[in-house]
Amino acid sequence: MDIKWKIIHLNEVDSTNEYAKRIAADSPEGTVVVAKRQTAGKGRKGRSWASPEGGLWLSVVFKPPRLDPRFVFVGALAVVDTLVDFGIASGIKWPNDVWAGERKIAGILTEGKGNEYTIMGIGINVNNPIPEELRESATSMFQLLGREVPLEKVLERLLFHLSGWYRVFLERPDLLMAKVREKTFILGRTVRVIRDGRELIGRAMDVLDDGSLLLDAAGQLKRILYGDVSLRLV
Ligand code: ATP
Ligand code: BTN
Q1: Domain boundaries, the chain
Q2: pLDDT tens-place string over residues 50-80
Q3: pLDDT confidence of residue 1
Q4: Residue 173 buriedness (CB in 10 A; 0-12 / 13-18 / 19+)
Q5: In the CATH hierarchy, which fold is given to the domain comprising 6-183?
Q6: DSSP-assigned letters across all residues of 57-106
Q7: Residue 59 Cα, ligand 1 centroid: separation in angstroms?
Q8: How confident is the model at residue 145 (pLDDT cuts 50, 70, 90)?
Q9: What atom in ligand 1 is closest to the CA of residue 93?
Q10: Ligand 2 center to residue 32 CA distance, Å?
Q11: Could you tell me which residue ranges the BPL/LPL catalytic domain spans (predicted)?
Q12: Architecture of the domain whose range is 190-233
């Protein structure tokens, strides 16, 4: 089963996720909204996502059979594989970021409506400038490679890998999670998790089959669910 992509190109939009949500009910799976720039790009918890021209900002309408928190990993693995195609090694900062060389290069934001649809928003810093305040924490393909990369080539590789990992998600979620474990670079490291305003420090031990993170907090094993948690490397 290969997805038939239908790409909508926009110059400017508030957020491709918001646009995709507005059209999702009447759009087939595989509808892709790409914008040159977003005026209100967003991350999780309403955080803002810097989206100037030169980056790849897109959202895909998926219609998976059920809501599943592991769906975000389809996007994360597709980004990791896309970066490999351009010679960039990267890893997943559980649950929804992709980092290269200790800096954030991409983020994934999934938003669903019951069993109707799931929007997968993906932002990759490609040739766009990194805002001053994110210089310490963010990077781009341009910064890492020292040259511009054609956006349409990145898009083409990303869609290719998205359809591959989507199929794995549907047919062999165990294999998807095995790959997630391999690519999650925080395993073995000490992390700080903020959950409901409470802080938990521990060693990231594993990503479990349901997508949650296993944390060893002073000898106590805690299962951290993907949700409204923030995670920082210590
Ligand atoms: P966590 O999700 O664990 O809380 P996070 O800080 O990565 O960690 P997110 O909500 O995933 O939080 O991402 C939004 C954050 O990403 C913003 O608060 C900002 O710090 C950062 N950010 C915004 N735009 C970009 C960008 N283009 N590239 C990299 N980082 C960005
Ligand atoms: C995060 O790190 O929290 C996720 C960032 C997701 C950014 C992408 S850019 C395309 C799509 N539209 C948005 O407004 N957000 C996502």
Answers
A1: 6-183, 190-233
A2: 999 999 999 999 999 988 999 999 999 999 9
A3: 62
A4: middle
A5: BirA Bifunctional Protein; domain 2 (3.30.930)
A6: EEEEEE--SS--GGGHHHHHHHHHHHHHHTT---EEETTTEEEETTEEEE
A7: 17
A8: very high
A9: 3
A10: 14
A11: 1-170
A12: Roll (2.30)
